[in-house]
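#lab-general

N.A. 3:47 PM
ok so I finally got the sequence cleaned up, no stray characters, all 404 residues accounted for. can someone with queue access submit it? mine expired

B.Y. 3:52 PM
send it over

N.A. 3:53 PM
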Amino acid sequence: MKYKKRLLYIENVSAERIAKKFGTPCYVYSYDKISNNINNFKKNFKTISPLICFSVKSNSNLKILSLINKFGLGADVVSKGELIRALKAKIKPEKIVFSGVGKTIDELKFAISKKILLINTESENEIVEIEKIAKKNKKKINIGIRLNPNIDAQTIKKISTGKKENKFGVTEKKFLELLKKYKRSKFISIICLSVHIGSQITSHLPYKNMLNVVNKIIQKSKYKFKYLDLGGGMGIQYGNNLNNLDYSKYNQLIKSFLKKNNSKIIFEPGRSIVGNAGYLISKITYIKEADSKNFVILDSAMNDLIRPALYGAKHRIIPSKLNRKKISKKHEFVGPICETTDTFLNVANYQKIKQGDIIIICDVGAYGMVLSSNYNLRPKPVEILVNKSTTKIITKRQKLKNII
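B.Y. 4:20 PM
back already:
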């Protein structure tokens, strides 16, 4: 994404052209950015040769998943629907991990029938159910047990998953109990220790603490795990947050860890693969002047992108056309939905803009369209994939008549 002669381009196509051709709001993804992110991830962790299972919950578009598969990645799924979508994208079952705290019996049966790599369990109740299904079908099922390491990832509170008050995983004591109880089961094979401490992590230090906890528990258990699933959570730059996770430092931590524990590493990245490859193109419907600021009312809303309303997340908002003239009055970019939380960003000294202008909300490739809804009976946006100079619809815009 760059400006050419004051016009913003996504690869070789201007945002203005995309807006005119496909309308707004419009989700746009860059093929080049996704491929660069994947290759960069592979390059940085090449020395530990991990199995990379893309987190489908971050972006479940079928065409995006097919692109992910093209680069040889597997999938981390958390529902039957995501598993079906991953398989439809031709991702190999032996590269699929099923995670989540509340898998239903139907979901477990379906996952087992598709012979996926493993199911990461999060409670003894779940292990019991898997054992019943395996026994009935005279199979031995590969599972992992997810540990809650009680690590603060120093991220947004609402996307923290590794602290003891979070619903995910089991305690160290329970982990060791489950391992001892089920390691000789005739119907399940515990091949993985799984751990995931949160999302949007931009420092290697929480991962260092996590690996220390994992190392201690492996030493205590004296158990040989074929796989160590370290989850994902690698952060990207949003707004004024200019920090990126240092992959090289994280890779070095894992290399040191593997000298004591010889396991195959599984990663479950999502945001770090697609987050900064997505853009939400919007149009300014009105500009409403108030005493202390101008409300810039967009045709995009919290039903299209809920992260700011849900997490207080901040996404950069940039114009499709550059204008040197700045306005000192504060601008608040908001949507049309009847909720005070339907607001995206407050900006001071923004350039001069007017009704009808096109603006772009950045870094929405992860947890953007997947969290969209029909709140206020608003149709979901169209999704476009840009590859050099070509644009392709990968999800059609919803029609109001189909919702009604």
